[in-house]
Structures are given as structure tokens and as C-alpha cells.
UniProtKB/TrEMBL annotation:
Name recorded for this polypeptide: FAD-binding domain-containing protein
Species whose genome carries this gene: Nocardia aurantia
Molecular function as annotated in GO: FAD binding
Residue ranges annotated for the FAD-binding domain, each copy included: 15-181
One Pfam entry name: FAD_binding_3
Amino acid sequence: MGSASETVGSVPEHTDVIVVGARCAGSATAIELARAGRRVVVLDAAAFPSDTLSTHLLWPAGVVELRDLGALERVLGSGAPRLTTALAAGAGFEIRSRFPDVTGIDYALCVRRPALDAALVATARAAGAEVRERCRVHELIRHDGRIAGVRYRDHDRVERELRAPLVIGADGRASTVARLVAAGDPHRSEPSGRDCYFAYWTDPHEDRRQIAAQWREGPLLGTAFPCDDGLMLCLVQPPAGYAGRGPGAAEAAYRAAVAGIPALHNRLRGCERVGRVRSATGLISWFRRSSGPGWALPGDSGHFKDPVTAQGIRDALRYGRLLGAAAAPALDDPAALDRALRSWAWRRERECAAMYRWTNRLARGEAMGPLEIELYRAAARDPRLAAATLEVMSRTRAPSRILDPARLVVLTARAFRNSRGRRGDLVSQVADEVRGIAEGWLQRPAHLSTAQQSPNR
């Protein structure tokens, strides 16, 4: 006969929604569902606060999502400074601009994941969601062709069964839920041309702690984002394969890339590194099939972009929140729920497609081309154009409205005059931009028709 704990663990529980993963996408989804009066159980293998491999800049639109979820005051309690100014420099040109206002928010934030995720978990609990920590899902329950629950091991390693009409896999790029519903292979993907290395530094330069900065030097890209606890996130993205192999490769690649960007190296004077270099290599941007009978994949589990444009957390928060809003009124009707999930997945792909393409271009790991140099040159002289580029990052302006046909013609003519030795590069870059504009006008996201298929039995 089994122990008492094993007997209790064998009795199935029931709830309205199970959310696997309590970080950005999972907490956002749970908050919205709980606010709608639904019973939500969130399962996460971590104990909070805890860290995870992630960069974590939030443009103003991302801060808006924190506000709308009711988490902003808790996040601001971390002490992260309000980043009111953006700086971007490359090819001898420097663009500096205040962040534009997005529905009352005119600053960015960079908050390390232990503080950010703990604030989101606390907000989810305050909204009425039950968050169970140190619980690892290992199996999905199926009934009549639908996902109907999970089996997991709790913090005492007791196996438990939890049933619900909806299981949400907010468990990251290596999603267990995505794998178990056979949605692990993306239907649209592109490998990044950059690797990512980052570390934290003390930051005694109070006069610079309101500036989010990025520098380009040849194919190298580096950033300095002041964050909580008086620290600064310093990230570099050299071309893929920049590092060697073996112990110490990430450290060597990081040091070499920082040294190869003089302005970034200068920003770090007087700063002291705290902790080790972290790395993310072999990155692939994707869209996965993100809904099916009784399941959905918000956050990185369903859609991931290279960190070069710092969009992941904003999208996890926004589309987690929208998933909760879409699912809450439909949970009692399986057909209505499936329609709501398909509509949500379609909306995310449609709304994220332009930024996905823009991100993939910036992630190519190449030096700035003639057309991009002319864009920097123009934005350095024109404050309105500089502000417009920040609106793209905050998702209030489409990328196609920066290099629209009229501006493309003007910048191409200027680049032709100023790049006599690189006109072949110019022709290639202009052709690429024209393709991008055409995609923005003509291409529609591929409909996830396979989302209607039943999960494997």
C-alpha cells in the first residue's frame, strides 16, 4: 500500500485552466484569466525569485503591458532606473532621442529576471491565481482528442494529476507542452546571424543611468542598459561563430567583442563586472503552431525573435494577456474555445510578422550597409526620424513606415553618392528593402490550419 502522500497525489484535481510556466507569458495569462473569475493553477519548476537566461530590456510599450497587468508598481520597486533617453551610434553617426510617449509611458526599463518574474508571480497571486512552485510537468492527459490536463511531480516529488479544459504551455523555447502536442517544429523560422553574450557590471556613472545605448562597430553590436540594484546589463552580439570552442570560449568572445567596440569599452570605464558571462548561441527565430484542441502556446514557446530588437518580454506579456482575455469566456464550450484560440494565434502572428522580419534583418551579423548608414546619417540630423525609429521598437509605427518607398528613393540616391566602393552592397540592400516593403503589403501570415488537428493520441 502506498504512503498517504502518494494516495492523495493519485486523486485528480480539477480547475478551469492550467498554466505551465509562471514567468512573463504564464503570469500574464494567469492574471487575465483570474481577473475574469476563472480558477487558474500555474505550475513552475522554479522557486521564485529565480533567474533565467534572458536579456530584459522593455521599451515603453512593454512597460505599458506591466502597467495594464497591474504589475508595474511592484516592478518599479526593484529600483531599476527609468530609461528616458535612447542612444544608437554607428558608422560615425550618433542618434540620441527621448523615448516617445506610449499611452502615458515615456520611459524604458531594464529589470533583471529574478525581480521581474517575482513581481509578476506576486501580481498573479494577488489576482487570484494559484501558483505552485517546484512542480515539473512531464505528461499531458488526453480525452476525446483534446488535451484535458497534466501529470506533474510536486516539490516533494509526489506525482499528481490536474485536469482542466485548457492547458497553456508558457514554458519557454524548450517547451515541454509544445513537444508533447507535437508542435515543436516551427512552421516559419530563420537562424540568427549573431550570437549573444552578456554580463552585469556595477555602474557608478549616475549621469548615464537614464540612457539605453547601442553601438555598432563593423559586424559587432553592443549595448549598455542600466538596470536594478545599481547594475548595468552589457550585452554584445558578434557574428555567429565568433567564439571558439571549449572552456573559456564565452569569456574570450565577450572580452574581444567589448574591446572591439571602443564606445562600449569607454562606457565601462570605472565599472566592475559582477558574475560570469552568459551566452546564447545557435539562436533561431520562429513561429510555431500555437493552438489546438485544449492547448495554447504563448511567449517563447510559440514565437521567438532574436534579442537584437528586445521584443520578447513585451510580446510574452501582451499576447499572454490577450490569450487570457480570449479564452476566459469560452472555457465552457470546446468549439468556442478552439475558435478563440485559433483567432488568438492568428492575431499574434499577423501583428508580429513585420517585427519578425525587421528583427531577422538586424540579426544578420553583418556590418552596416550603405543604406543603413544613410538612415543613421539622416536620423542624426532629423529628430523626427530619430523618434520614429524608437516608435518602431515600441510597436506604434510599422517598420515599413521608416523606409517607405519615398524615403527609400532619397536615401538610395544619397548612398549611391557616398558609397562608391560599395555600390554592389547598396544594390543588394535596396533589393532586400524592396522585398521587405512588398512583404509588408502583400504577405499574410500563413494560416495555422494544422491548429485544427487533434493532438496525437
